[in-house]
Predict the structure.
Amino acid sequence: PGITVVDAIDGALPEGGGCWATPGNAAEWYSYTPTVTQLITISTAIDENPFDNDVYDTRLSVYTGSCDALVCENGNDDISDTDYRSELQFVVIANQTYYFTFDDRWLDTGFSFSLVVDETYTADCSVTLPFTEDFESIGDFYGCYTRFDQDGNGASFIQESAEFGTFATNSPNADDDKNDWLFSPAIPVQANGTYTVSVKFNGADSQTASANESFDVVWTDAPDPATNNQTVVGSYSDIVFNGTSLDDIEAQATVETTTPYTPGVAGNRYVGFHATSLVGGAFLLLFEYTVTESLGTNDAAQNVISMYPNPTKSMLTLVQNSNIESVQVFDLLGKNVMNQTVNATTAQLNVTELASGTYVIKTQSANGTQVSKFIKS
C-alpha cells in the first residue's frame, strides 16, 4: 500500500494479450497478496499525476492465477470520457496473489499509482425477497458473487462502473464461444413457492466487433457450473447494441422475465447467468435483475387474500382471513414504492399516484407473508 513510481512501461505483455481485445506492446507488472480479505483501490488519478490526458493516459488490468494461466479479474482504461487516468476498486481474498499491470496501449511514459487498502470491509450477502441487484456495490459483487471462466480465455464476469451506468459484463472471445458463469448470493426459497427473475440487459460493440450475445438464466442448488441440479428458466439470444449511443444504452436495454421456478424443497438456491455467445461477438451487459416470490398452495392457504378491483386506477382493496399487519408494494425492478401499516383484516390502498404497470404486493401477518401482483391501469 502507498504510492509507487513507474519510470517507464517496457516489460512483457501477458500471454495472449491479457484483458483487452486490443493489447499494447509492453506492460509493467506488480503483485499483491493480502493476509485478510480486503477492499482495495488502485488508481493513477492522484496528485502525483495532475490531470493532463496528453501526459497521463493509463490502462490497468488485474489478474489471478499463474503466469502461464492468468485469469483476468478486472480492468479499467479511463475513469471517465474526459479523464484518461485509471482506477479500480475490488475485493481481494486472503492469501490469494493478485497481479496488476499497466500496459502501453496509449502511452509508455512514466507515472505513479496508489494502492489503498480498506481492511474494515465486510460484504453484505444477505437476500430478502423481492431482491434487486443493480451491481452498484463493487464490494458486494466481488464478495458475494461466484464467477467461472469455463471457456478458459482468462476472463469471466466483472463489475464495471461507467458514466452511463453500472453493470456486470464479460469480454469478447476471439477464438471460442463464450462459456462464463455468474452466480448470485444464496437465495432462500420455500417448498412449492414460485420464483421469477426479471433481468435488464443490452449488448455493446467493441472496437473490432459488433455485439451478438446470448445467455441463459439458470436456478441451481450450488454456485457451481458442475452442480447436477440446474433448471434453465430463460434463454436469450441475438442480443445486439440497442440504442443510439452509450448515453442511452441502459435506457434502451431489454427487460425480460423468466418462466417461473418452483422448488420441491425449501433451502438456498442460486441464480446463475450463463454467457453462451458465439465466437466473434463483443460485450453482454447485465444492468440489474430482480427475484420475486409467490407462496405455494400450502403456504397461501394460511393467508387467503383477495384483491379488487384488479386492474385498478385508484383504490385497491385487500381482504385476508387473518389480520394484516402491514403492506408493502414493489415495482418489477424491486423498488419499494409504498408502505402502509394496517392491523386489520381489510386494507385499502390509494395507488392513484403510481405509474401504470404491474406491481408486487406483500402482506405481512402473524401467519407469514403473502406475495401477490396487481395491475395499475
